Structures are given as structure tokens and as C-alpha cells.
Amino acid sequence: MKKITSEKIRKVISSLCAQANFSLRRDLLAALKAARAKEPNKRNKRMIGAIIENAAVAKKDKLAICQDTGLPIVFLEVGQGVQITGDLNAAVNKGVEEGYRKAYLRNSVIRDPLLRGSPGYQPAVMHIDMVRGSRLKITLLPKGFGCENKSALKMFRPTAGVDEIKEFIIETVKNAGPDACPPYIVGVGIGGSADYASLLAKKALLRRIKISPKGLERELLHKINKLHIGTMGLGGRVTALGVHIETHPTHIAGLPVAVNISCHALRSATAVL
Amino acid sequence: MKKIERLKAGEEIKFSGILYTARDQAHKRLVEALKNGKKLPINLKEAFIYYCGPTKSRPGKAIGSCGPTTSARMDKFTPELLKHGLSAMIGKGARSQEVVKAIKRCRGVYFLTLAGCGALLSKYIRRISLAAYKDLGPEAIYRLEVKDFPLIVGVDSRGRSVYKKSKN
Known about the structure:
By secondary structure, chain A is α/β, with parallel strands linked by helices. In chain A, 38% of the residues lie in helices and 25% in strands.
């Protein structure tokens, strides 16, 4: 058994908070640069340019890429050969609190969804997978809520065609319109149960963005870009930078489809122990 | 303000002056205070409200990251604030038909600014001070002194929107 202390996990999570919020993912930066090259219109180019410049300022000055430093979502892949000592739950939340405080990030978490009250930094939303091996993989996704609010779930009939599903995904992006900081990254989860499809849609955002996607992802990206919502909603050829679809076996009676949209400030950071 | 009436949807300007941040909970409180006939903690007359909840300021810096939040969430409060003298709003995304009508009626304006560029926008802010509702943390009302803050006219005083135009 490989022992990992919860103390170690706390420290790693704390540093991931700064990393995710200050340094834009390399795949995203590459996708933004490709998008800027693709836009013929000067203003659209300039708007994408501002996003790229923003990432540079954030990195240099250790400032949050976006003031909405998100609801911290923590994914843990725990190898079966790993033994975690101490209180894992507390370590994750302490790590988030410490990381957010140290990096001057925003306290956007309220304790009670109905009573609201003064905001704090945690608890994080946590997803734990047990996997083979002796490693612990920790990923932090600070999810902004402008785009999280545009999420959608639909329970299709099992006889539904792929066209209906495509239409639902495109319609969800259309409904987000200019509100949630386009160009978007669109996470899609198909199959499983209602909750699992939603989780898949969110996990899909962690995948590396490909400049030249294939198959259904390519087709959907093309169709979404035809909506001409554009960067900052000001029109143009680029409404999304990527469409990521994850699928899972499901029940004979159903076909759940979840869409989780990310703004252009898709932030995540990973560490493997 | 005559200048505001001359602005056209899609036009880009740079603004220097005072902005008040206010988002969901501050809007709720302002409108409740108006309903109950109470005095507001800020003067709405000719005010500019910025839908923004900044991150904490590092020591020695005026402000942290400070981009716009989604304006649509403020839609149900906006007509009341315009009626009481609010001149301009700054945010991101589309507004409801009711808000567009109120902007037209009150000769106000809705601006967009660089969405998702909070680090970059911090460069245009000279000073920040707390104006009201401290308990709301990042959602409190802050007074911002800004210089050359970049704005795009989203809905002009005649109710024309930049978004309709851009759907080509």
C-alpha cells in the first residue's frame, strides 16, 4: 500500500487553486489563437485578442483570469493501492480555502442555497473514482456560474434519433446566447442516469481541446458555429472552441443527455501523486 | 446626460469617472429599500452601475480581477432603478424586452465590457472603496474610480441592441 497523507493532499489542492485560476490551459490558449486566425472581421479578432491578453496579464500579475473564480469542483481518481491517512474531506476543503485565500481569489460559496448569507470559499463539490493502480490524481475545476447556469438535462425516449439529440445540444447553446462568455466549450454527457449524464458532461470539459475534431463532435462544432453568436456575443465565425461528448451505457427505457457549457475561461489544473 | 443619448448600439467608447458595482443581492436590497421608501446608500441619479463582484485585492494593488457578470439576472430589478435616475449599466449578455423598453423610456444606456477579461480590466481601475452592504462580501456595492474603461454600447437610449445586428 502506498500511503498518502491528507496533509499532502491539502497542500496540493491549495497550489492547484492558484495554478488553475492564474494560468490558462495551454490547449485553450492554442484554440483561442486558432480562432483568432479564423475570424476575418477586425473587431472579432480584437475581442479574441483581449481574451489572450487577459490570460497574459493574469499569469504575469498573479490575478484571477476571471473574477468568478468559480465553485471549486474537485475530481479525485484514487488508485486501489493507495491508502489515504487522515480526513480526506476536511483536507480537500481546507486546501481549497487556503488556496483561494492565499491567491486572493473570490469567496463565492454560500452555505445555504435558500437562505444564502455571507459567502465563503468552500465546501468544494467532490467526485471520487476508484481506479486500479497506486496513484492519486487530483483535478481542480473552478467552474464559473455564468456558464453553469446554462446547463441542461433532457431525458429522451430510447427511440429518439441522433438528430433530436443534436438539436437539443445546439438549442442549449443558442439559449446561452451572448450571456455566458462565448466562445464556449460544450461538454455533453450521453447515457447513464440523469446524474451520471450530468457528471459526464462536466468531465468532458477536462478533455484537451482538439483544433481539428472528428465525427459527431466536428459536426456539432460546425453547426454551433453557424449560430454566429460569436466572441462576446458580437457575431462572427467562432461561437464554440470545442464540443466534447462522453457516452455511457444506459437503460433500455431511456436516453439521458446532459449539456454543461463552459465559458472561454475554462480553467482546470491536475496533479498526480 | 446628453452624451448618453447620442451613443449608438455597437459604438465603442472609453469611460473615465465613477462606477458603482452591484449585482444580484445588492439589486434586491436597493429595490426593497425603494419600495419601503427608505434612503438608498448610493445616489442613483445619473449613476453608472457595473455588474461586477471583484476578487480580493492583493496588497499594493487597487483591485483584483473585475470583469462583468451576466446582466440578465438583474433584469427584474433594472426598470425600477432606471425610474429612480440610474443612467447606465455595464455587464455582459442580453437584456429582457422590459429592460430595453425602460432604457428607452428613461433615456439610459446599457454597455457591455470585455467579458471574461477580469485581469485585463483591473488595469483601468484607479481606486476602490466600499460604498454599502459590506456583509455581502464580493457582492457588496463598491465605488470604483476608473480611467479609460472600455465599453461597447449594448442597448442605446433608443432601444437598439448590438446583438440583433451581429446575428448575420
